[in-house]
Amino acid sequence: xxxxxxxxxxxxxxxxxxxxxxxxxxxxxxxxxxxxxxxxxxxxxxxxxxxxxxxxxxxxxxxxxxxxxxxxxxxxxxxxxxxxxxxxxxxxxxxxxxxxxxxxxxxxxxxxxxxxxxxxxxxxxxxxxxxxxxxxxxxxxxxxxxxxxxxxxxxxxxxxxxxxxxxxxxxxxxxxxxxxxxxxxxxxxxxxxxxxxxxxxxxxxxxxxxxxxxxxxxxxxxxxxxxxxxxxxxxxxxxxxxxxxxxxxxxxxxxxxxxxxxxxxxxxxxxxxxxxxxxxxxxxxxxxxxxxxxxxxxxxxxxxxxxxxxxxxxxxxxxxxxxxxxxxxxxxxxxxxxxxxxxxxxxxxxxxxxxxxxxxxxxxxxxxxxxxxxxxxxxxxxxxxxxxxxxxxxxxxxxxxxxxx
Length: 405
Ligand SMILES: Cc1ncc(COP(=O)(O)O)c(C=O)c1O
Fold this sequence. Notes:
By secondary structure, the protein is an alpha/beta fold. It has helices at 5-17, 50-53, 62-74, 87-98, 109-126, 147-151, 156-159, 177-183, 207-220, 241-245, 271-274, 290-303, 306-329, 352-360, 383-404; strands spanning 29-33, 36-39, 44-47, 102-106, 134-138, 169-172, 188-193, 196-197, 203-204, 223-227, 251-254, 265-269, 333-339, 342-347, 363-364, 366-368, 372-375. Helix 10 (241-245) links the parallel strand 10 and strand 11.
């Protein structure tokens, strides 16, 4: 861990002038290369969280850096007042990847969710069904921290200080198909679901529930919003994790990995829902500016490479089989869940001390829900990175377990 004047002065300044809503790890990173981050003193850390699922192409990616530099020298921002040289190109690629027709560009996952929530209601308003305003969300969900996204987020710890939230939200249990059926009716504007829940503990929606969601939408006409901010953009092997479950959403929220480090959020619409939108209904000054679109294009180009798809699949197999072997050796590992490069490791005790022990061993991971360690490595990790991470993680689990005794 670094202990220089630089780190101390950064921490002092932050303590005075930054809103204290984050518990930061005591380190300042100044440089990155591939799946490694470096402090000013040259200490190196293996990054298996990639800025919470964002640095999809790793750090210091040359093609991305060159493209962003060229874009910055050409044109950065013109707003949405004018036709745009890049948005349609990104939207066309996203339409091909998702099967949805139209894109709205914004700057974060929460904004993408917010957009989906607004336009689900807009759709019914246009149909004259103004009473059709209910959202059915899920227990353990996380959709972001703006008022709308927070309103469909489950954890009361996030919600309670900001009440009252957007009304007419109910929560279904992902394990209770009959419960969902009882909640979805002809007052439901939309069901919103993360097909693979992230912050709630890396929990895939059971196939039976995915089928029930589809059936409930068919039965009542309710729209389906899938939040693929974390699980989408290829992280699990398919472009959307919902494609694995056979979900057919009307609206999809994307973010995180899509910008590879540049803030990009996108709400995807079917033509049927998009038809309800009128100029002025929604907007974003920055949304989809040239820098953001350039980043998304570089990312989508890289994702289309068969070599990247093959190395991601190999890294994922290696990670899951290594963790399965670790689980057999370490009974404190209760479960290993997820898909592709989105992995949750459920422990029999609090995950926080494991994250700290991993950090002390220069491995960056994090915790979701209380007992789950989460791995969201860059898509570009190598077999050597996976080997190293597995070893460091096991050492960290052993150390945290030992400290409890
Ligand atoms: C599933 C999901 N939706 C929405 C968000 C919010 O994204 P952002 O932090 O970019 O606003 C997150 C962030 O973790 C997320 O995991």
